[in-house]
Amino acid sequence: xxxxxxDDVLSQRNAQHLLRQRVVVENVTGRAITVAGKxxxxxxxxxxxxxxxxxxxxxxxxxxxxxxxxxxxxxxSHRELEKRFCELLGYxxxxxxxxxxxxxxxxxKALFNDAPEGFIVxxxxxxxxxxxxxxxxxxxMQRFNHNNIAHVQARLSKSKSCNKLVVSEGVFSMDGDCxxxxxxxATCDQHHAWFMLDDAHGFGVLNEGLGSARDVKPDIxxxxxxxxxxxxxxxxxxxxxxxxxxxxxxxxxIYSTAVSPLQCDVVSQRLTxxxxxxxxxxxxxxxxxYLRKQCEHxxxxxxxxxxxxxxxxVGDSESALExxxxxxxxxxxxxxIRPPTxxxxxxxxxxxxxxxxxxxxxxxxxSALEQCR
Length: 373
Hints:
Elements: H1 5-15, E1 27-28, E2 32-35, E3 38-42, H2 69-73, H3 76-89, E4 93-97, H4 100-111, E5 118-123, H5 128-136, E6 140-144, H6 149-158, E7 163-169, H7 181-190, E8 194-198, E9 220-224, E10 234-238, H8 240-249, H9 251-254, H10 261-275, H11 278-297, E11 309-315, H12 317-329, E12 332-333, E13 335-337, E14 347-352, H13 359-372
Parallel strand pairs: 3-12, 5-6, 5-7, 7-8, 8-9
Antiparallel strand pairs: 1-2, 2-3, 4-10, 9-10, 11-14, 13-14
Helix pairs in contact: 3-10, 4-5, 11-13
């Protein structure tokens, strides 16, 4: 029978403790989540500044853009939002996307659509969207050991391509550590390569909210709105000619209905809140230090991270799932991250902090972790 393999694949993944399932969320805030009528402390959100809990002013914009951006879908609200990000971060031009995944994949494909002998060098821990974009592009792609500048230099020095691109994340979503921005920029300049950065988890949190790229300007910067900005969508910032090229060759942008003007209004309001969230960032930084100190006190070895992402490596997937379930019985909601999202034998509990949390919440979390390990 056709497609009989599907049940076999699902059974195999279930036996390996790797089967993914959706959970229906009934209510969620930066601090709490309700599932199946039960409330939990929420340590699995990307809403780092708890902006999702803040109200928004009434919306007068239309809910639909009615067309793709190159037909009649490019509204004044799109242009104004792009202009605001350009002025904030020092770029000539920008382009809005419905999601960060779409932005990453499509930019890498389109950039190398007509590029002779393109060469992409990516960090091994880059997000799946970046890896997929590189694999689907017409460029040769190689990966370098995580945050290893010497390996980047070795990759670039061996390439004879005149169109070289180094790709990294600002904050790595599963480890919580940061890219060596200064060194990456210097290495790119030394080898006449461009630098592309996905700062999904850094923007809004680091460097007074301006993210990983505040002091080091990538040639192409991708920001997503679904993390610290607590809404949806993404933006790509670059030089005028890069955005002009994407208008010609980026199939995801050309053949998709444009982001709605209503969503642009939401993003604009959230951006204002984000830039003014000084107290939230300060409190979040204090929570990060407090969590790490308390975990160290009870012998829980968190990975090295100074960001809201604080992973606790468990090892095998079965143990990670068992610990996740034990924590839920204690009112703690955490995500067990398993292969292939992370490497074999590095399954982990991905703790994420929000400015909505209290120090007492962290104490509750650490106590539960200590009891369940």
